[in-house]
Amino acid sequence: MKRQKEEVDEEVEIDSDFSDNEDEAGSETESIEETVHNKRLRLAKQYLSKLETEEIVAERDGEINRDPIAHRLQQDLLEEKGKLERRISKRICVLDTRMVLRGHSLSPTAVAVSPTHIYSTGKRGELVKWDLGTGKRVKEVKHAHGKGGCILALAVTSDGALLASGGTDKKVIVWDTTELTPLKVFRKHRDHVTAVAFRRDTQLLISGGRDRTLNLWNCEDMCYVESLYGHQDGITGMDSFVRERVLTVAGHDKTLRLWKIPEESQLVFNGHKTSIMECVTMLNEEVFVTGAQDNCLCVWHINKKRPIATQRPAHGTRPDCWVTAVAALRNTECFWSGSSEGGARLWACGEDYRTVTCIREVEVTGTINAITVTRDLSRVVLAVGQEHRLGRWWQDKTARNSLVVLSLQESENAER
């Protein structure tokens, strides 16, 4: 026992040789942690001060009259959940100035927009990057999906770091947006890929095609996640927003489907009885808009299986006019639509979304194959072509294959 005690004493004595160093290291660690803590505290105070300043300015303009920081944080929380609603139809105006970008020899088929750039593609298979502010062409990749391949869909992440494209070669390609270099090629579809979308502020990519399948991809790890089935015809339109959900329409099956990814379930909506659904967009997480080949716009609510509002005719008077594209001004009551007859219209929903009113019309010659709106709602980009993006049922030779960039502005005395 005595010998064991001596050994223990020796061990303790040996450990004590390093005690001074450990105390010094500990104090340095505490100092570093304290510095990091102070930095976080300082940044938080700066952020709150910035929010308070912005909200005080807004209060002086007569927009709000409540605690500024609490109001701003509440707005951010509602936006994160996809439940924020701003009524802007009386303040939004479309400026007369527009940019027309020409660089596609055949009809543009898809367009996507990041905070700083526009990405577009055409039936010849080229992928073009434009500067959003100046309209200058920054970079072009010819035959992005191989020779003879046509790109039918584009989507870009919220931060503008990744671009996804889907085409007639049955591939989904993920691109680095800086140099337009391919990072990954996904092969899972058995037919043309006609729609792609990123969930907001994430790298979850969803693709759909003529094989009636939805495929989910994780672009952070560049891997396949799962497939979803349910549509009875090829998917023609798709949209996704904040929550883990995706909204799709599919040609001849005449259904609108909301896919709840974590629950692995879907809601089926029926409305366009005699026509093919062409396109879909989400105003928020609960209200959607679809366009169809019968020149009809339908507004839907997540709790109703039938449309809560219908606008027919939506464009022109010709019986063969199609609604070919729709795009929402997120978290507002407004959305854009485009047609095969040419021309884009800005619509506003009523207080309960049961009425739809056209508040502005922009004349454009040609078929509007795609519409996209910037996240700050300052610009809208139209992809205008001589032909429809999925076929050659008609050709308007008077149209110019181009992108049309319109500027939007919120003003108290809006002149539309």
- Which spans have pLDDT < 50 for at least 5 consecutive residues? 1-32
How many DSSP H or I helices? 3
Structural class: alpha+beta
Report the strand count. 28
What would your notes on this structure say?
- The longest helix is centred in the first third of the chain and has 42 residues.
- With 416 residues, this protein is an alpha+beta fold.
- It contains three helices and 28 strands.
- It has a four-stranded antiparallel beta sheet with strand order 1-28-27-26, with no helix packed on it. Strands 2-3-4-5 form a four-stranded antiparallel beta sheet, with no helix packed on it. Strands 6-7-8-9 form a four-stranded antiparallel beta sheet, with no helix packed on it.
- The N terminus is likely disordered.
- It is globular.
- Helix content is 17%, strand content 41%.
Topology of this structure?
Blueprint: H1 2-16, H2 19-60, H3 68-81, E1 92-101, E2 108-113, E3 117-122, E4 127-131, E5 137-141, E6 151-156, E7 162-167, E8 171-176, E9 181-187, E10 193-198, E11 204-209, E12 213-218, E13 223-229, E14 237-240, E15 245-250, E16 255-260, E17 265-270, E18 277-282, E19 287-292, E20 297-301, E21 309-311, E22 323-328, E23 334-339, E24 344-349, E25 356-362, E26 367-373, E27 379-385, E28 402-410
Antiparallel strand pairs: 1-28, 2-3, 3-4, 4-5, 6-7, 7-8, 8-9, 10-11, 11-12, 12-13, 14-15, 15-16, 16-17, 18-19, 19-20, 20-21, 22-23, 23-24, 24-25, 26-27, 27-28
Helix pairs in contact: 2-3
